[in-house]
Specification:
single chain, 3 helices
């Protein structure tokens, strides 16, 4: 389905925004569950990782 370049970029931007909002909501739920179970390391680990996942993989610090 052909679109002009501006429409394509808008579509990708909306998709990225939508996915990032869903990811943020999932992380908030995970942090709430971690606090309920008394797992402080989950809260601390998620607040430390402010950089996007692609950059953390490039640095050799994956989700491990």
């Amino acid at each position: 389905m052909p679109r002009d370049r501006n429409g394509d970029e808008l579509y990708y931007m909306e998709t990225i925004m939508h996915l990032s909002m869903r990811l943020a909501a999932a992380l908030q739920r995970l942090r709430a569950v971690g606090r309920d179970r008394g797992m402080k390391w989950v809260d601390r680990g998620l607040s430390c990782r402010a950089m996007p996942a692609g950059q953390s993989k490039a640095n050799g610090k994956g989700a491990g």
